[in-house]
Design a protein that fits this description.
The chain is an alpha/beta fold. The protein is built from ten helices and eight strands.
Length: 256
Amino acid sequence: MRIVVKVGTSTLAHPTGLLHIRRVEQLCKVLSDLKNAGHELALVSSGAIGMGVGKLSLKERPQDMATKQAAAAVGQCELMYTYDKLFSDYRHTVAQVLMTRSDIADEERRQNIRNTLFRLLELGVLPIINENDTVATEEITIGDNDTLAATVAIEMHADLLVLLSDIDGLYTADPHKDPTARRIETVPTITEDVLKLGGGKGSSLGTGGMHTKLHAAERVTAAGIDMVIANGEDPDVLYDIVQGAPVGTRFLRQEG
């Protein structure tokens, strides 16, 4: 299978913003093993701003654009250094791909990105993709990496998109407020009622939330791609997801 895996800031970092070393090490080990099994993988990684916040010892995620971009510049270095080192331990080469909305909106630049991603896969490289937060402004920002992951999955003609976050999947109600809430294992079709289950934004270090994940699911399933939302606390969950086990919430591709 061709699989796009997106990891959120809450999966990669502690609440302090500093790297969650043990979890990231396990994530890279599992992804390397899946590549060894013959799957083609791309990783959409959040965390640049969040890790920059930690490394710069800022008390909270910055609100002004200049400080966000500065934090992203610092954090992206640490993020890619870590990925390169860890994947190298398993004899896999990684590549950094940074995008903005302008790259996706312009057809020629979009085709260039597509060509590069396909060539990287042909060369056996694992692309690591993030929004180019260092230069992106409000006018050209993609906004969140759930949306970016959906775009990447569609452009790469993926078979499966996996969104790893700090949530177990889609629930019938907010499980923090409603003890009767239950996890929905499978969503055959995304309806208005399903979209209404989306809540607000996620962690204080991230930008996404359930509503962005549901809109990502709406896009990729319409493009013929399955999508799974699962908790990234234990990256071993990827083995079960790839094997089709009932983990998290699986949104089924729309045929035809």
